[in-house]
Amino acid sequence: FKYGQIVVLDGYQFDHSYQQALASADICFAYLDDINMFLEKNEDHIADIVINGAAAAQQLGYEKNAPNSRLCLGPQYLLLRPEFINLPLIPIADRHSLLICFGGGDAENHTLRMLGALSQLNFQFPVTVITGAAYKWQTQLTENIQDGWLNYDNAKHKISMPIHCIHDAQEMAEVMLHSRLSISAAGGTQFELMRCYTPSYLVVVADNQMPAATESSQQGWCNVKDWRQQVNYFGLAKQVIAEYSDTESLVVKQNKAYNRVQKEASSGADNLLNVFSEVINLRG
Description:
Elements: E1 7-10, H1 16-24, E2 29-32, H2 37-40, E3 49-52, H3 62-65, E4 70-73, E5 98-101, H4 110-120, E6 127-131, H5 138-147, E7 149-152, E8 155-158, E9 163-167, H6 172-177, E10 181-185, H7 189-195, E11 200-204, H8 210-219, E12 222-226, H9 233-244, H10 247-263, H11 268-283
Parallel strand pairs: 1-2, 2-3, 3-4, 5-6, 5-10, 6-9, 10-11, 11-12
Antiparallel strand pairs: 7-8
Helix pairs in contact: 4-9
C-alpha cells in the first residue's frame, strides 16, 4: 500500500471487523454508507472518511459513532455519473412515456406483475421498461411483449399499451429525461431521477431504502410506496394511471425537483476528491 492512496469500501460485507483489520494495517480508507448500521450495533466507525450523499444523512447520528472520521454527509457529496450533471429541463408536455425500473436484479419480478396490473386496468400510453443485467426473466419478458400477452402466476393478461424494453441500459439519463412519470425501486436511481426532473413513485422493498426515500418524498417531487410488508400492484397502478394524465400535478412535482437540484452542488465527486487530498496530507 502506497502513500497517497485511499481504499474505498462500498457494501455491507465490509463490516466492523473487516474495517478494523484495515485500520490495524494503517491503511487509509473511506466507507460509502447509507443507514449507519454501525450505530444500531453500538459500533464506532473507524474509517478515515465516511460518505453518505443522501439528503437525510445528517439525521442518522454519525456524530455519535464516528468521533475520528471525516464525515462527508449530504448532497454536496452525492456521487453521480457525468451524464446526470447539468441536464436540461424537458417540460412534462414534451415527455411521452411511463418509465418502469425495478433495479438491476428485480428479484421478485415486480416488473412483469406491474405491467400486468397496468394492462388489466387498461393503461394506454407508451411504457419504457428498463431491466438490469441480473434480471432473470428477460427472455420471458421479451417473448411476452412480442406475443402481446403477459404470462405469470398461472394466468395470461393481454397487454394494453405499447412497451419498449431496454435491457442493461447504458444511457439512463436520456431515458429518464423523456419519461413523463416513473415507477422505480427506491435505491440510488432516485437521485438520478431527481436530476432528470422526473416525477416518480419510489417503491421501498428494503429497510436501507427508507431514509433516503422519505427525504425525497418530503422534497415533493415523488411519492413513496412501502412494499416491505405488503405488495400492492393494483393500488400503485391506479395511482399511476390517474396521475399520468394530470399534467398540472406532474408539472408541480417537476418544478420541485428542478428547484431542489438548483440548490444542490453538482460536483460531489470533486468535493470528495478534495477531502481525500486533505486526509492524505494530514496522514502524511
